[in-house]
Amino acid sequence: MEYTSFGRTGLRVSQLVLGAMTFGEQGGVGAPIEECRRILDAYAEAGGNVVDTAINYRGGASEEILGELLAGRRDRFVVASKYTVSRDPGDPNGGGNHRKNLRLSLETSLRRLRTDHLDVYWVHIWDRHTPIEETMRALDDAVSAGQVLYVGVSDAPAWVVARANTLAEWRGWSPFAGLQVPYSLVKRDAERELLPMAEALGMTVTAWSPLGGGVLSGKYNAGPAEGAARLNGQTISDADLGVAKVVGEVAAELGVTPAQVALAWVRRRPGVLPMIGARTVEQVRDNLDSLQVTLPAEAVTRLEAATGFSPGFPADFIEQTGPWVLGAAAL
């Protein structure tokens, strides 16, 4: 396992992030606590040091289980949690990114995780009703109080994140050091605005659902002919099945698993750390082995061609008009 800086900070984080959304059996299929212990131990033994959870995962059980499993070794990990999702659907102030919910959510997470601080605190989802100035100032107050060391943002438009960090820079507040987005071979939307923004602002990206919600795990590699295949009650598109088929072909040629190919593709982008979420220790060990996979250039070309992805406007237009705009200076 190698390590990199978390954004423009001195915090060192591992190449793979362990997602704890599967910790607990509440609200659907998940992992019981003893399996969670084996998962965390296997991850730590491989050198992983970042564990990501949220106040709402498994109705709070994820944080509670993680707090128990980290007892006696909490300081060896970079512990991250998120807030935004409602603590109480009947309370109009029970959710959102405003100061009140931040304070109450943070207190709840610290109590469940049995710690006096979070290493990274994420804004989970953009709340269009709360001014970004309020959120950034409230986060900075939590940092000043020592309850949070670094802050990040998940699932928000690029313009919101850029504005937030510009405000933080001007006013001397703690900026977002990390960005969390869905990113995989079947979900490349982040390449349009979010990933270029993160690179420009020096933010580390943690990619959730790098296996496309399981589509790229190897279970659906039969291709478009299996268009009726379903995942979590939803029909998988022929386009996604076609990508999964190519992932399976590349995996067979390299002698690795499809999941390892999918994770290696995400990891090859600078500044992007895949988040692995497993329900069994066997799954997490398979994911960890992706660190040994290097994709040949030809394989990368085939994988990306299978997605049929285009950045769209304005990226495509700017690229096409480069010679016209810049003349001899165009690259």
TrEMBL record:
InterPro entries: AKR_Detox_Biosynth (IPR050523), NAD(P)_OxRdtase_dom_sf (IPR036812), NADP_OxRdtase_dom (IPR023210). The keyword Oxidoreductase applies. Residues 16-306 form the NADP-dependent oxidoreductase domain. Keywords: Oxidoreductase. The keyword Amino-acid biosynthesis does not apply. CDD domains: AKR_AKR9A_9B. SUPFAM superfamilies: NAD(P)-linked oxidoreductase. Pfam families: Aldo_ket_red (PF00248). It comes from the Bacteria. PANTHER family: NAD(P)-LINKED OXIDOREDUCTASE SUPERFAMILY PROTEIN, NADH-SPECIFIC METHYLGLYOXAL REDUCTASE-RELATED. This is Aldo/keto reductase.
